[in-house]
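[recover] target loaded
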């Protein structure tokens, strides 16, 4: 039901029927919440569309909350669900572009590119991604922030708030301690912080821990 409502919202936006799209996206997100489905990849599209409609109506607070919700799911959006993942990510990129967040849109489109390298036969989604990349080139650069976190960095974030050391985190993520440290330093830079504690506070404030 959530996916069906979200797809109807996509159609409504295509027709510039933003009031209807807002209504459908809100219903879609409500189904996700009612079913406690926030941690499932399929909840990404309802949230991405809710972000787009929130930006359109000027509710930037709501838009950023929805964007954070999609960001938490980005590590789950991969080639295993190619059509759904690319569609969700392109809608997310559109939301970032509407906010003139070039860094966020660029990172999301990089994720789309990686999926298309493995799953190239996705119909019109391939053209949509190409059009978005062209639009991105026409947008002036902005600051690098949380929206530019990579999927690997987003995967690391939940572990930062635990007692685990970098080597222990590496064991759980099947990467080296050096990789974890490198990703952590990159996270700190993008969040504008200098320590693990500050990073935890920042991601909590941004809603990236889902609390």
């Amino acid at each position: 039901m959530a996916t069906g409502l979200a797809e109807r919202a996509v159609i409504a936006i295509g027709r510039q029927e933003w009031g209807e799209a807002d209504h459908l996206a809100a219903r879609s997100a409500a189904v996700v919440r009612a079913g406690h489905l926030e941690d499932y990849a399929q909840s990404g599209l309802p949230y991405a569309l809710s972000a787009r409609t929130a930006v359109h109506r000027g509710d930037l607070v709501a838009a950023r909350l929805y964007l954070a919700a999609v960001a938490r799911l980005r590590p789950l959006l991969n080639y295993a669900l190619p059509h759904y993942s690319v569609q969700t990510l392109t809608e997310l990129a559109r939301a970032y572009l509407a906010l003139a967040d070039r860094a966020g849109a660029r990172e999301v489109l990089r994720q789309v590119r990686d999926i298309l390298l493995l799953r190239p036969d996705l119909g019109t989604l391939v053209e949509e991604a190409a059009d978005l990349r062209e639009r991105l080139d026409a947008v002036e650069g902005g600051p690098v922030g949380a929206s530019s976190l990579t999927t690997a960095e987003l995967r690391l974030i939940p572990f930062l708030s635990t007692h685990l050391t970098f080597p222990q985190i590496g064991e759980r993520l099947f990467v080296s301690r050096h990789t974890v440290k490198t990703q952590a330093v990159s996270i700190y830079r993008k969040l504008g912080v200098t320590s693990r504690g500050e990073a935890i506070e920042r991601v909590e404030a941004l809603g990236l821990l889902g609390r």
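[recover] notes: The chain has two domains: 2-146, 149-206.
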